[in-house]
Structure formats: structure tokens, C-alpha cells
Design brief:
The protein has ten helices and 15 strands. With 318 residues, it is of the alpha/beta class. It has two domains: 196 residues, Formyl transferase, N-terminal domain (Rossmann fold); 103 residues, Roll (Methionyl-tRNA Fmet Formyltransferase, Chain A, domain 2). The chain has a seven-stranded mixed sheet, covered by helices on one side. Strands 10, 11, 12, 13, 14 and 15 form a six-stranded antiparallel sheet that branches. A two-stranded antiparallel ribbon has the order 3-4. The longest helix is centred in the middle third of the chain and has 25 residues. The N and C termini lie far apart (55 Å). The structure holds one RNA strand of 73 nucleotides.
Amino acid sequence: MKIVFFGTDNFAAHVLEALMQKHEVLAVVTVPDAPVGRKQIIQKTAVAELADRVGISVFKPASLKKDESIEATLRGLGADVFVVAIYSKIIPQNILNIPTKGSVNVHPSLLPLYRGPAPIRTPLLHGDTVTGVSIILMDEQVDHGPILGSKEVTIEPSDTNTTLTEKLAAVAAPLLVGALDGYAAGTITPQEQDHEKATFTKLVSKEDGKVDWNKSAVEIYNAWRAYDVWPGIYTTWNGKLLKIVNCVVLSSSRMRGSMVGQAADTIEKPGIVLEGGIVTCGQDSYLQITKLQLEGKQAMDIKAFLNGNKDFVGSTLK
RNA sequence: CGCGGGGUAGAGAAAUUGGCAUCUCGCAAGGCUCAUAACCUUGAGGUUGGCGGUUCGAGUCCGCCCCCCGCAA
């Protein structure tokens, strides 16, 4: 089939790569190059990178609604179907309706669960053990259309946003290709979603990474997994930003045994740093920081940090 | 020129008004021990990011340059 692909990040690029093997990708639509990093170096998206490398023409409209020429351009390509995977903009209906067979979306969750902009992170945040990928036909509502296919993926306790994204991308690529074939051949009947069961995710903001020590160590650890890479999880120490680069949950029974003789009030309050960089959390739980980064400093192991910051143990994180 | 923090031994940090460059860890050798990420003793390891200036004397003060990082995006 003749396809126009919409996408931005690595997940999308991975899907595009698989798609190119089986189908004719006429063009790619992504978002404009944006300045990245402290030096504000202009960088193109992973999808644009791949498209440029293999010689597929790329469009980078700032807006699909306001740019009127883009609709005519896309219409002129004569695509059978549009495939959308993590394209950080909402595509207006008049664009979705262009291809003869409509538009298909790759969504990295088991729809109707986790609709919206953070479908990979939110299951991690909730501590779910299973998620998946869904291929749907796009309709007038976001992540709402009938399902062409889906596949479950197991979430390991060690999975983070990064590793889970890779796993989902690996599953998504062949699933999409299969669903497209089945859809084109008429062997797949689109299944309406059970809208009663729909749940929604919200866009992640920097604030979400701020650690609330009143929460349990497991919840904080899940936040670390969900907010991996960006925004990460952080707290403050002596008024300075402290990023938690790595951490582990300690079983509270083990901790209780080792804390015989410790003052009771020290044990109760959350956010207190104990020996070895272990921090008291809510619900009588403990999180050990194993790697961290203080504002303005390089990331380092807890051991190195303790060597130079003797007053860390006994202080309170906020 | 978006705002800000920083560069001192292999790692992390100190160093008061400019005045013997220290501490913790690691490393090496020896000792103790059934044993150890334990403990004791000794030791190696530095052009304090670079260049220039002020000074009797600069990690510290001044100028220029290089590099790292947080925020922001």
C-alpha cells in the first residue's frame, strides 16, 4: 500500500523502519526541527533523521490546521492510508479523511486503557504488570476508533520508560504491518472499543518528577521508572536540586531489624536520610538512593557522594 | 551573547583576612584474623583546567581562554 507516515520520536522511527520494508512510504510528516540542549542546537526528530537517511521526502508543518497548503500537498500524494505513531500534534479530521482507506494509529497501550499522551509511562507509574500495543482506525476522538489489532507486553519490575518503549516498539512494528495487511485484504473486522472502560493519561510535566516522601518507597520507585530520562525524579537538599539517578526499594522488615535502638521519631518522619543514603518514605518503607546528581555537579554513586558530603546522612530531603 | 553552579591526588569533598595544600573513600605494602566492604601500621599518588597579570608569597585577587553541569527550551 501507499502510505504517508506521521510521527516524531524513536518509537515512531522504529515503526517507520519496519513499515518501509513492506510498503511504499510516499512521504513522512513530522514536527519542525527544534532547538535542543543548553546550546540550543537545532535538531531534527528521529523520524526526520531516518527519512532523510533513506531519502523519503519529509514535511515539517508547524501546524496542520493553519497551514492550508499542507492539505493540498498531502492530498496530491494519493496515499491509500495514513499511519500515525506518536505524532505530538492532533491531526484535524479533514486531513485524516484524505486517504481512501482512512488513517491508522499505533498506540502503545491496550486500548481502551490509557488513552492520551502518556500511554507508556502511566502503567509504570501505576505498577502494572502488563500493557501492550493497539492498532486502531482513527476517528474524530483521540485514541477512540475501532481496533484492528492489539498485543500484550509484560512489564518487568526492572522496566523503565526507556526499556518499555523499546519493547513496545519491537512489538508494534510487526503488529502494524500485519494489521494493515489484514485491513487491506478485508480479513480483519475493526472492533469497536469498550468505551465504558476507557481511561485517560495526562501530559507529563516537570513538576510530576518531584518526589513526595510521604508516598511509599514502591510508589516513588514506580515514579522513577515512569519518569525515566525526562523529567526524572528529584528532591531538594539544602535548597539545592537533587536528582535521583538510581534507587532501590528496601523491604521494611529488613530495615526494621537493623534499626533496633534508633530513636522512634527519626523512624516516623519521611524524607530523613539514614546511613548509606537510605531515605525514610511513607507507610513505613525505605528507598535507598544508589546514584544521584546534585545541581551543578556530575552524577555520582551514593558512596562517592557520602565521601564528600558528611552531613548528608541525618539531613532531611524536601 | 537566555539565567545560574562548578573544575584541588584514581573518586568525592575542605582549605578563615592571600601564608606548610588537608579529609573521606580507593590503591600499594605489612600486621591482626577461621574469615571479611572489618580493624591496626606505613606508603605511593598534585604543575589546584590552561595562559598571562598583581604580590616577598596565589587554590585564594585581576584579565582572557578551555571544559563540565543545573535551570530554561
